[in-house]
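Feature request, filed as a ticket because there's no other form

It would be nice if the structure record came with a short human-readable summary line next to the tokens. Right now we just get the raw output. Example of a typical job, pasted below so the devs can see what we mean:
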Amino acid sequence: MLPFLQIFDCLDKREFFEFQNAAFYSKYERHPSTPYLSNRPFMHDGLLDFSIKNINNFFGLSILAYKGCTIQRFVVGEKMDPHQDFAESYSDPNDYAPTVSMVYYLNDDYAGGEICFLPIRPLNAIKESASIVIKPEANSCVIFDANLWHWVMPIEDGERYSYSVFYNAVHE
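Raw output as currently delivered:
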């Protein structure tokens, strides 16, 4: 399993505020099965370059492809159940299972919404069962092995915005 990396101040202030405003004021659809997903692909070249460089430098991996690039919006009561981003098999032979995930945080003015990690499937989606619990800060990101079990605790107040990208990467 790959190590876990948390990075602060990912973008300069101007880039961060531009990206944040684009995310907050964009029009998007919410789907009942994934209410927290914007279902709107959104690419930020500076953040992609930043993450690819860090994945290469820290993990020693080369990026073959990336996908995702979606904005997530969680409102009061919404959460994400324990899951892995990696899947053993995809039905589409042209698709790939991600090996590395990155979540970038666009705000931190909400209560709840911690991201929790555990190397094995958790029995309960509670903070106490996690080996790592992060209250994300705005303009920070976490980069981690797509096999790592993780979940988002319910939002208690406010709205939580994040941006996810999934990478297919190989050791150099």
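Something like this underneath would help us a lot:
The chain is about 15% helix and 40% strand.
The domain at 5-27+34-171 is CATH 2.60.120.620 (Jelly Rolls).
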